[in-house]
Amino acid sequence: MAEVSAQTHIEAPAEKVWARLTDFTTYGEWNATHTSFPQGGPATLDVAATYQENMKLMGFPAEVTWTVEECEPARLLVTRGKGPMGVNLAMRYSLTPDDGGTTVRVDGEFTGAAISLMAGKLKDSATSALGESLRKLGALVG
């Protein structure tokens, strides 16, 4: 298993951050691992909604089928994904209002047999991508 996380403070209210975070038409403007939604972004973020995303992880293309597990607008989005070679992913985006802005934390988890072979490199690559993504998100929103 590989676990990653990143956190930043964005000088904007949680509702504004959430609006950008869940605007799937502009997802590629800030998400460093995203390449496309082959069938468009999710129509809704209702629990059990599914959607496909093409990503690039450690330089390799990957298609992931995501399922929404939890969604509390302007507060929490949790998704679980199934990727290639039996890799499972989980992403948790949490937004916490503070000091007139919002603390955004992203926690990711990668599991599966293929992960044990490359856990260290994946953790480094994914941590870097999360940090870059949050910087870009903050620049777009703040």
UniProtKB/TrEMBL annotation:
Q: Which domain of life is it from?
A: Bacteria
The record ties this protein, via Pfam families, to: Polyketide_cyc2
Protein name per the record: SRPBCC family protein
Species of provenance: Streptomyces luomodiensis
